[in-house]
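Input chain follows. Return structure tokens only.
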Amino acid sequence: GQLVYSIAEETERGASVGNIAKDLGIDAAALSARKFRMITGSSKQYFNINASTGALSVNEPLDREQLCELKSVCLLNYELVLENPLELYRLEFKVLDINDNSPTFPLSEYHINMPEFLSPGARFTLPNAQDLDEGANSVQNYTLSPDEHFYLEMQIRGDGSKYPELVLKKALDREQQATHRLVLTAKDGGNPPKSGDVPVIVTVLDTNDNAPEFEHSVYRASILENSPSGTLVVQVHATDLDEGPNGEVRYSFSNTTSADLQRMFSIHPHTGEVTVNGVLAVQRPLLEMLVEARDNGAFGMSSTAKLLVEITDVNNHGPEITITSLSSPIPEDAVPGTVIALLSILDKDPGENGKVTCQISENLPFQLKPSLQNYYSLVTSELLDRELISEYNITITATDLGSPPITTQKTVWVQISDVNDNPPVFSADTFDVFVEENNPLGAFLYQVSASDPDVGENGRVSYTLRNSTVAGSALTSFLSMNLANGSIYAKRAFDFEQLRSFYFQVEAKDNGSPALSAAITVNVYISDQNDNAPAILYPTSQNGSVAVEVVPRLADEDYLVTKVVADDEDNAQNAWLSYHLAHSSDSTLFQLSPHTGELRTTRSLRSTDFLKHKVVVVVRDHGDPPLSSTVTVGILLADTLPQALPDFDDSGEPPPLLNATNIYLIVSLACVSFIFAAFIFFLAILRL
């Protein structure tokens, strides 16, 4: 419940205000038993409650002007707490104004300069008196001491406030009277009324006759309470119809403006810009100042305008973001709309300053959806792919609608968990493997590699050989594979002459559930080694005998004796053959073409040539190292084919004249002849 009491200010200590127990309808004796207490935010305890009777009385006299300054309604709020059971009552005290303050003027006297040529009806603004009392107790009217040249008239500004003006009733004559002394009196509406007066001294001058005029009689502006020094509040502007210095306007605060406000604000004398000059340490939401515009004439004329400055409360609380629930990690196959987090966003400021807008970056697959009041749900807006982005730092930006707005950010870290949605991928469409024949058993041939962008077991790849046959045999009899790393090994030696190439497929499978797989074709090309010597196809010998070719007895030069034909089962340069004469019974008679293997005569045959000849032909390939084969060809010089071929086991050449046997015989014969001659010579000597 709530109780409202009214009490006049300056009420003496101990004066009765009311009875709490009676007004609340409770037993006064229960107040003490229920441990009553009054709670207030004021530094003084202005009221007291009698624990036995419940009587509410004044504990400290109240000064309405000190408590509430210029507020139209002055309220003091208390809270009465009772225990057993716990009850809370709100007490509101309305402090009524009494006429305890007289009107006062800011200055002890005011001076007005008036040119003597002014016509009757000229007006001059007089200062306003200030009365701290409120309502009817404040200033109500002004009076002016009687004078034949002046009278007082009240004027109303655009905001409804009144101010006094001094009106010229009769033309002035400076030579007759240069100074007029008047008394301005301000009266309030109290009972009895109070008043205050101030001397007004009018000096008659011979100067310009036009005062500056403001564009507006009242200027209104609004600034933030934390505006820094130098902040522009408003720019006032006044014009003067005079020319030259009499029309140049200078701006200043009127003397009626309090010194505190003149310290808080400054006005540029030439531009009329009113700026903040210090800290705006005020409790009132509306400040009132008078701005004066005065020309630069020899006897400056002036006018005033009211400046009302509204101090706007600043937005000094930012939004608070609280994550009440978070699901992380989330699977990458989560459907759009899956809720990830629940957020609470609050702003302690009231009104527009407490309203909040919330958003995240547009380039993320997430969105914020309003839930309950001040709650948002963070949900997925698109399909996720962990292989592209495995985690997200989602920055949530909350901005209130204050001026200026305050922004708060909070980052939510969301991890994406893997699902087996990617099969293994090989680095190429096919693999080509080259291996030399005669490889050792268990030789490493190749290592296939497949990648799987998934992680964990979903990305662990194993390799197998798909069942197939090669040359009629199972593939596994040729090859083996390491299941873990994809290395392929040979289980037998390859023979290029029997198998030049074959292909098979390798399957890569991940360990996900269900498992995904991919296959690739591997082409194996067996390269040749020089492991076969040339085979001589022609001429051929049987049972180790020499092949015989018959050549006409008197054959011409370049006669084709025979052509050696050979073949090599190897490939490429290993099968490139060349032909060479390893031995010839007559090197001047035959020549052999190294490329074609043709054996021809180098000259025409003569009748003196031996009838039998023997040549040895070497056939050599171009391998590394090269291999070779030889064939022995017997050549018989005859015009007709004999019935029986001669034996070509000997050389078929005439024996050399000085071979070892002949030399031995010659030496022996010479020795015998020498001994016989010596014996004859010895006998002859004996006979003589």
